[in-house]
Amino acid sequence: MKKKLLILTNNPVAKIGISSYLSSIFNQYLTIQSARGADITPEILDHADCILLSTENIKDNLPYPIPEHVYQLVCMRTFNHTYLHKILQIPPGSSVYLINDTENNADEVILQLQEFGFSQYHFLPWYPGCTNPDESIHYGVTPGELHLVPSTLTTVIDIGNRVVDISTINEIIACFHLPTSLADEVTRNYMSHIVQVLKLSNQQLSHALDMKQITQMILDNVSEGFCLLDESGMIKMVNQPFRKLTGFKEKNLSGCDFCALLRSYGIDYDFPNTRETIISQPGHGRIRLWFQKFSLNPKAELYLMHASVCEEQASGSSGTAFPFRARPLYDFNNMITRNPTQSHLLDTARRISLNDFPFIIQGESGTEKEMLAQAIHRNSRRHDGPFISLNFSSLNPSGIEAELLGTEENASLGTRRHMGAFQAACRGTLLINGIQHTALQTQQLLLNVLQNGYYMPIGSSGPLSLDVRMIATTTTDLYSLVLEGRFLDDLFFLLNTFSLNTVPIRQRRDDIPLLLNNFLRDAFKDPSLVMEDVLTGNLTAFLKQYDWPGNAQEIHNLSNYFSCIYQREPIPLGDLPGYILNQILSRQTSLDVTEKHILSLIISHPRIGRSTVMEQLRKQGVSLTEGKIRTVLRKLADAGYIKVHRTRGGCEATELGILMSRG
């Protein structure tokens, strides 16, 4: 029987965060239970082998004393380093509210921030019970407590919920006499975060930590081989396992050109164009090298090179058919942008890819949420594993349980063997598209599986261990569904370790020409094509100003449409799909009968002048003065329906004018 670890806390966010994080590490060895201090009973306390207190003072308010035979630990928590750099957006010297659920917790986070070197800010605690915020303070920082933020603040930095510190992980391992290798994965995640902080030293920081020493110490205390390279391929730091696995004999590799080093050993590796390779050194066997790419600012990229003993893929890991999409995956190189907001999103996504926590991608339809999830998977340590995508909006609610859990052959239940998404995504990533469509029963199923770390296929006699990185996408604000009682708060906080909000096209207009050209090249299968080659100037100008309600997916669809209707002549505005034409016509200036009549004359008689217009109208029984005709022509020109040429050039209808004549 597994020994029991009991987590005691009064904060629901901390309850979910701590228990889910520790379950992901110790699920195979321990039974992990979490409870609010006010809800415990003597039986719960007595049956625990170890109690983890979220704070030191929580036991002072327990309704029952903790038995003497139960071992006690106080949970040490630290920042999620992925988000710490955001604080540097705040001008130095500013007064900043630190928002948390209690005064003690707010003070604790302030102290940790100061210890991390953020002493250029004057932090003030803000917690429930505080009244009348100082309206001269415009900045706030919170560890995941956005709902407590005072409305007077204009800029709020969410640094995410704090995670369990590595020291507490090691204390739990020692308490239960567990394998020390359990700390390796946690250490790797910490290392990934600290590597990022290494480059964030800023002139704003008056008390910077020596992150290089800390990072090197961590690197040397994990079993996997790591080598950190800068954007030019120069080695910044390398750990002993990397040296041992690769057989490199040089005493000091820092500052060496990585590719030149490989060539000196007779090894060819097209870095960074090739993501991974197999090398072989005499006496060291076959070693697999692969890297993760991430950036610390728009102008600097880093590569974290991994080295591990090459193992053949397990038999049966490929070629198995299951009802999920299987096509080539996107990576970050496929996500093009010149927009600063989108660039920041991609930079954050690269950072998130370095750890293994679940997270949510929120955004409008067509904003490449699945493409972003695929890129994160490709840049993660799970990139060799499968990427499985389930669209909850298209699944029959009664069949979702079987799609997730799978079924086993069971005559009494009448079930046949069917591989579920959890098993299909084993050692990889499971993407749940449209999680806002999930029924409460399915939400409870997901919550149980994620909390327990195992699942039971329908008809099976035993559980299977869950080894999946979970990503969820939504087009609506999930927290608003939580407040409405339509989404489980425990599941929301468990999934929302991180969140990414995609950027709609109308907010990144500088990317419209870039995306149009890219999708048109794919559609026409011509890498040198630009939109001016196949679209008229009027159509090109319109598309640059169009709001694109369907976002990137609409640009992709329209590019394919253009490739189908193109007939060697530039495509005019009037050949747009009907739903877009209707939008154009609904926004245009309305014309009366006379104005439409004159516009029709100009369309049928290009370069027609005012006198000829008057003559043609007279022949049709319409009498207008030259002044009235001049007024109509000015109105048509101002609306963009005609061009009035100088020096007897006459009038000519534009594409928009031709379109209006049809309406």
TrEMBL record:
Residues 211-255 form the PAS domain. CDD domains: AAA. This is Sigma 54-interacting transcriptional regulator. The keyword Cytoplasm does not apply. Residues 335-564 form the Sigma-54 factor interaction domain. PANTHER family: TRANSCRIPTIONAL REGULATORY PROTEIN. Keywords: ATP-binding, Nucleotide-binding. It comes from the Bacteria.
